[in-house]
Amino acid sequence: MSKIVLKSPREIESMRKAGAVAARVLREASLLVTPGVSTGDLDVQVGQIIRRHGAVSAFHRYRDFPGQCCISVNEGVIHGIGGVRRVQLGDLVKLDVGVRFEGMVGDVAMTVACGGCSPAAQKLIDVTIKALYAGVSFARAGNRVTTVGRAVQEWVESNGFGVVREFCGHGVGRSVHEDPQVPNYDDGRRGGVRLKPGMTIAIEPMVTAGKPAVEILEDGWTVVTQDRQFAAHFEHTVLVTEGDPEILTRDDLPNLY
Known about the structure:
Blueprint: H1 9-30, H2 39-52, E1 56-57, E2 70-73, E3 76-78, E4 92-101, E5 104-113, H3 119-137, H4 145-158, E6 162-163, E7 169-171, E8 178-182, E9 200-203, E10 206-208, E11 214-216, E12 223-225, E13 231-233, E14 236-239, E15 246-247
Antiparallel strand pairs: 1-4, 2-4, 3-12, 4-5, 6-10, 7-8, 7-9, 9-14, 10-13, 11-12, 14-15
Helix pairs in contact: 1-2, 3-4
């Protein structure tokens, strides 16, 4: 039986602050994605940015994850570890940032096209962004997590792309991962967890250009597409309210996503 944590008004305010910090870190990190930079250098710089904002990485050493953030390139979907790989022009770089601030976690991710990309890759990015907001639009009290997943799946598959099944969104708050799980597809189960005001969830479509099957590399973390086609990933931390859902990790400046 899952245990859903409803956040108190004080915790929600701290989550707003953590979400704002995470969004600003992500914005600054996205500007570092340039041809020739190594993913290891990116990781170090993201850690420095997080600390400069008075926060700590919520990912570093979480379940022994070695990085400050997750950096996944091209066929990489999620959980990539910074290393010697150098980013090339046209690469799709997925940046996933989690910060802890005032005891709460903000979790946010985006896909950056290094110096631009092909029309096909740009469509993959655009569809994934719209899938994220399709899911967010259904994150309302009274709906169920399956409704969120169905909205994501229908949009993605109607555009000819694949939805990763093995990984999903999740509750977030004092911990990086809390209940409930938030699939990006309709898992066929009747019902599912009903959303209530005070729940905070991370909605994060993981979309593939080819087949949706993925595998984990030998490092035990990096998730890649089995067919090695490109993937995209976007994520927001969202508060369920009595009315419209509130995106806690939306950047307060324009043109992030």
